[in-house]
């Protein structure tokens, strides 16, 4: 399977937990997954096979629920190509300082 980019934004809602603390639970799952990722102010972008990234996204969702979220809004953005992989570097390399 070709490499894709998956942007994952999780917005937790909880009556008892801080949203940022819950988002950190999701980021911890991504960090521990071994996939390439980049945290941005609005979402975390991952790179790898689609099946693996969707699995990581589901584990991240569950971590937020396990952390105390009552509900979550989840937004996925996927960039895939028919005949070749997609990398984060090809889109951002010229902007890195």
From TrEMBL:
The UniProt entry, under InterPro entries, shows: MTH1187/YkoF-like (IPR029756), Thiamine_BP (IPR002767), UPF0045_domain (IPR051614)
User: What superkingdom heads the lineage?
Assistant: Bacteria
Question: What do the Gene Ontology cellular component annotations say?
Answer: cytosol
Q: Where in the numbering of this chain does the Thiamine-binding protein domain appear?
A: 8-95
Family annotation (Pfam families): Thiamine_BP
The signal peptide annotation in the UniProt record is none
Family per similarity comment? Belongs to the UPF0045 family.
Q: What is this protein called?
A: Thiamine-binding protein
Q: What is the organism field in this record?
A: Litoribacter ruber
């Amino acid at each position: 399977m070709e490499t894709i980019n998956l942007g994952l934004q999780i917005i937790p809602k909880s009556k008892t937990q801080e949203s940022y603390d819950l988002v950190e639970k999701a980021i911890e799952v991504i960090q521990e997954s071994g996939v390439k990722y980049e945290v941005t102010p609005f979402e975390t972008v991952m790179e790898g096979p689609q099946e693996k990234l969707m699995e990581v996204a589901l584990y991240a969702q569950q971590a937020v629920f396990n952390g105390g979220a009552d509900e979550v809004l989840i937004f996925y953005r996927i960039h895939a190509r028919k005949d070749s992989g997609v990398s984060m570097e090809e889109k951002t390399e010229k902007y890195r300082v």
